[in-house]
Each structure stands twice: as structure tokens, then as C-alpha cells.
Amino acid sequence: MNKNINKLILVFLGLVMFAPQVVFGQSGTEKSQDEFQNKLWYTSPAKEWMEALPVGNGRLGAMVYGGVENEQIQLNEESVWAGPPIPTGKPGAWTSIEEARKLIFNGEYAKANSLVQDNVLDRRIAPRSYQTLGELNLKFNIEGTSENYRRELDIDNAIAKTTFTANGVNYVREVFSTPIDQVIVVLLTADKPNSISLDLSLGRPADFEVASLGNNKIKMWGQASHKGKHLGVKYETQLMAVPKGGKLKSVDGVISIENATSVKLLISAATDYNRHDPFKPLTENLGTRNSKDLKAANKKALKKLVADHIAEYQRLFNRVSIELGNSDVDNLPTDVRLEAVKNGADDAGLFELYFQYGRYLLISSSREGSLPANLQGIWNNHLIAPWNGDYHTNINMQMNYWPAELTNLSECHEPFFSFIESLVPSGQKTAKEIYNNDGFVVHHTTDVWHWTVPIGRVGYGMWPMGGAWATGHFMEHYRYTGDKQFLEARAYPIIKESCKFLLDWLTTDPRSGKLVSGPSTSPENKFYPPNNTDGKHVNLGMGNAMDQEIIYESFTNLLEAAKDLGIDDEFTKEVELALGKLSMPQIGSDGRLMEWSEEFDEVDAGHRHLSHLYGLYPGSQFNTQDTPYYIDAIYRSINHRLANGGGHTGWSRAWIINFYARLNDSDKAYENIKALLQKSTANNLFDYHPPFQIDGNFGGTAGIAEMLIHSHVKDDKGTVIIELLPALPSAWETGNVNGLVARGGFEVDLAWENSKLKSTTISSKAGGTCKVKLGETTIDLVLAAGEKRVLNNTLN
């Protein structure tokens, strides 16, 4: 056993031994606290927001601190955004773009940089942020000192719980956000009658009013803004208190409860945001909507309310189980285990928990009918969130959805698709007005107001590839599900709309005769131009590697989709012709894959973005089977970045895990998943950029799955190759995983011992053919719809 963990076990042995052996859970049934599986748990309340525990139903979120005398539950509703004005772009900018292209081709990079900055990019409007809904404050009258304290988040049931004993009374507090009844539920119980007394209030940093509604409800309402500017959505939240026993009153926005035996709290919230047309707010009365939700939830029996929530959550969560080896420290608090890993310990169980936590967060922040997960999922305690809490489409929004298909949460991908489709009208307008191009375009960021123009500084803003990257997710959904109706009705149309823009955007490089993108940045990076005399950096080039790789993927996606739909027309011929003329990334004199079309001097050799490796992951253009000549260059590029301080943000480190997994490098993949926990993970397992960004959680979950199964390569006949345990690290010597999904609609279960496959079960959802690969052995597999095949360690 690792010495660090051994010491920590001795320190906390007393805490475990003297914890209460039985607590009374949400349905009144007894549950042993010896069960630690899939739980984040702690022995003290959260001191700050980054220690609190998240619950969510896709739309409504809460962060639970677990305070004893004073509990705070921070609240979110996904559409509480400050509002206009929004960037509108600079119509007619294409004339400056044409001039900038000539300047770059002539080596006048600085002039091109300045020209685009002045004449193409609109101003960045900030703050105009995603905002906190507010806080529910619970002030308890507790006699005596609390003992046997524990707070936990059970991600098997999606319920946060706080338990402690005070003055001989065992208290239990549970919080969950139900997707069935669309309310946040807080349950307060005690094992002795008349032991619960508290005051309840709602508050917010700004822009709110509160009032009582009858004797058991209060409401808070207002309009999101930034000091009276950027007026956004109107919101209202209501709190209903339903005590058992005791006295109850509500006066001036405060509910007081005395001597209750148990209390049920229901929280509803609504805004006038119209996802279909944000500039035409909904007219439904928010109070009526909230009251309706509260009345319906309160009418339901408590056991039914809890059971429905758990059943709907587990419908998604229980599809995948994972064990990465024996862990003898599951009975230690999560923060203690994390600290041990930061000090060098190995803890397979903590990686299991981290993986499932990522799935939990996706289910909790992105469900059918909701907005997609933003930079913070749905959890944000600010009026001005970091980076406005917006949708960064130069990796962060897409990374949020990397685990969706692979980890069997395909339905959670739906909000992403709906949102990207909602950008098409704006993106078409931007394409025509800014570029004089057909099709639709999205730049590096957007938000719930659906704008798509280039903004800010050229280093991040002049990058028209966000929409094209996002359309790749539509094709991936089809590959994983085989849903041809989705392909025809949704994937093909939006991929085609993006390809229309790309065809018009591409221009011929006079130096090579190839088609290139530009002027464009390689996201957020910079370089010193040739013959640089003033020491100033620039950002814009022609034919940058990431642009070319995204365009390659977009064109190949279009042609693959067209083939499967039986489409062969003038447009597909035009795409095929352009694909053949497309410039591809080059390998530099130092053996690295080049980020730009020329070998420029780097400003930041350890930059957090590794954009030029897009074709390795999340793309599949570069792989060990089809493009082995690129693999050494890719290795050199990753190693160079890391040697110079790269991977210093959580999401960047998560990306690197997936790179190494794709390269079948188990040791490096494990080294970086461990570094993600060591350097970029808070005690509540939230990812640090810093500050908090949720994309690292999702990227890390995807990376662990990618280490265990690959399906991104096809043979020369187009058959999917499912590679088993491609990057299994020695630290996970024995384990199993059930329910991962491979492209082609195959579900895969794996078990291994002594770092070797023990058995695998492969089932097909719709029927199909695949190849199964283990090391150097490959077999063909033909399965009917619903059929399962069990294979041994030799694939027999």
C-alpha cells in the first residue's frame, strides 16, 4: 500500500469507526454508511463554493454546502442571463479579408493583423453573463455541538446528504433536483419529534425582490442585469415549506418553522427566456408556472417523488459501470484521497469515481429539453461568471460533449444539437454580411442570444471554424447510433450548410496551389513573423493546421453522410473536388507537426491549446493505422508542449489524456489523468482552469473511456474496428467496465486480469458488422439486432 495512504488511514480510522452506523435516508429505510461506492464524502462542511456539492436536473442546479447551524444552498436556473446589446459584426468586412490574404501571402503579417483587427472584428461586449439564480439560506436553531458529521454526494442516486448528531438527535438533510417534477427538493428529518426549527430566506447579490406568499411560501423575482445595464431575462423562484408537526409562518419573505419533526422544501424557478427566439420573451406568467410546478410536486407522495427522481436518473447513469482495480481506501473522505494522489499515491477507486462523476455532471447539466452545458455546466455563483459562463466553440463547448456517446449518454447530447441548429439563421447572416459567403459560420464563442460574428482581439476572435467543428458532433452521433433519420433530417443539412461556407471561404495559396483557410488564428496562439525587428507577435496566418483539419473532417463527413443517404449531386462533387485540393499540415524541420503553414518562432512554446493536433483527437484523420508517418511528429509536438509547461489548465490536460490514449500510450495517458487530479482538481472534484471550468471534468471522463476502447478507425472496406484495452495502464492491472459504446452502435463490456483481457461481451443495437482487435489479433464479427457475443482472451 502507498505510504501516504497508509498514514491517512491511521489518521481517519477513528472517524470511520465512530461514524453513525445507520442513517435514515430519503425513503425512511436504513442504509449502512459502510457503503462508499460512487460517493463523494467529507467530514466537515464546505468552507467555500468550490467545496460545495452539485445537484442538477439539466435546467435547475444547486450547490450544497452542508452547514450545520447555517446552511446555504446556492441556486441556478440555466437561462438566467444578462442581455443585449450583442455584437452585430461589421458588414462588408470581406474586402479587408481579401486584402489581408494578399498581405499574408506577401509576408506582411503585422499589417494583415492590424487590418483585420480594425476592419473585421466587432467589440467584445462584457460583462453580459450567465448568472446565479440566488441562494436559499437556512438558519437552524440547533442545541448542542454537532458530532459524527458527514456530507456526501451519492452519484448512484443523484442525492446530496448531510448527517450529524446534536444533543442526542440524529439529523439528516437531503437535496436533489428532479427532472421528472422540475423542482429542487430539500428534505430535513430528525429521529426525535419536534427537533427541527429554522428560518428560511431567499437572496441574491443584486436585482431581486422578495415577498411572502401565504403562510408557507416565499418568492424572489427580478431581471438579470449588470448594474442596471444589459437587461436580460426576467426570473422568479418560489420556495414552499411543508413541515410535519410544529408551527409555520411566512412574513416579509421569511418562513419560520418551529419544532417540526420533518420538513419538505420544494423550489421552483422560471424565466421568460425563449430558446426558439431569444428576442421575443415568453409571455406566460412566471408565478403561475412556478405555482403549478410546486403544487404538482407537493401533491405527489414523498416516496413517489424520490423514487421517480432516482429511476429517471438511473435510467441513464446505470448504463455504465467501471472498476479499475482494488482500492482499500474507499472508506476515506474524498478530499483526503485526493490529497494523497496529489502527494503521489495511486488510487484506482478515485479514478473510477472521477469517471462516473463526469457522467453524473453531464446528466445533471444537459438533458433533453434543456440548454447545453456552458463553461460551468449549470453551476455558477457569480453575477459575472468567468468568461461570462458562455459557450466557447473553439474547444470548450465541444469538450463538454466528448463523453456523451462513448459513455452511453447519447440523449444528453441533444441540447448541443438543438443549440447549434438555433445558431444557423444568425450564422447564415454572418456568412453573407461579413464574408459575402453562402452557408453558415460560427466563431470562437457565443451565448444564449445566438450571435455568431467575430469579436474581440484577432488572437481569439478571427477564427471562423466553430460551427464547422460543432457539426462534426452530428456525424459522430450518427456513427454511434446508426440513426439514419437523424442523419437525413438533422446531420446532413447542417453539415452541408457549414460546407457551403467552407467552400466559399477557401482560397488558393499561390505558394502551393492548394486550398487554404484564412486569415485565421490557431486558437488563442501567436507567433513571431519572419524578419521580425520590433519583437511584436502576430496571430493570423493562412492554412493553419487546425483549420485545414477541421475542413478535411467536414468534407469527409459530408461525403460519408451523402453516401449513406444515396446522395450524389453537384454539391457532393464540388466538395470531393475541393477535398482533393485541400492543403494538409506539414512536418517541420525539427520533426514536429507544424501548427502554422510556415515554421515561425514561437511566443509561447507551452501554450494550453494544442490545436494542430485536432486531427488526432477529437478528429480521426491521423491514426496509427492510416497515417503512421504523422505519429512521430505528433509525439514530438505533444512532448514539446509539455516540456515547456503545457497542460497547465484542466481542460488542456484532459485533451492530452485523449491524445495519448489515441496513440495507445498507456503510461503517458495514465501519467496525465493522474496529473489532472493532482494539479487541476478541487476537493469537490470540479475542474480548475483556473478558475472553475467544467470541460476538464468531461474531457477527463472521455479520456478514461478512450484508454479502454477505440472505434475511430475503419478498415479499407469501411468496417469499424473496435480495439480493446488500447491504452490500459499497469496501475489498472485488474478491472472491468460495462456499457461503453463503440461506433457502429455496438455496446462493449470488458473484464481483464493481470493487465490482459479476460473476456468481452459485444452486443449490437441495430445489427451490423465490425472488426474486434486485441493487440495484433483481429477478428470479424457479424451481429443481428439485439445479439450479444462473448469472446475470451484470444477473441474466440
TrEMBL record:
Origin superkingdom: Bacteria
Domain Glycosyl hydrolase family 95 catalytic: 303-708
Signal listed as a keyword: yes
Keywords on record: Hydrolase, Signal
InterPro entries the UniProt entry points to: 6-hairpin_glycosidase_sf, 6hp_glycosidase-like_sf, AFCA-like_C, Alpha-L-fucosidase, GH95_cat, GH95_N_dom
Domain spans labelled Glycosyl hydrolase family 95 N-terminal: 40-274
GO MF term set: hydrolase activity
Location of the Alpha fucosidase A-like C-terminal domain: 721-776
Pfam families on file: Glyco_hyd_65N_2, Glyco_hydro_95_C, Glyco_hydro_95_cat
Signal peptide coordinates: 1-25
Residue span of region Disordered: 513-533
Database matches in PANTHER family: ALPHA-L-FUCOSIDASE 2
Protein name: Glycoside hydrolase N-terminal domain-containing protein
Organism: Formosa undariae
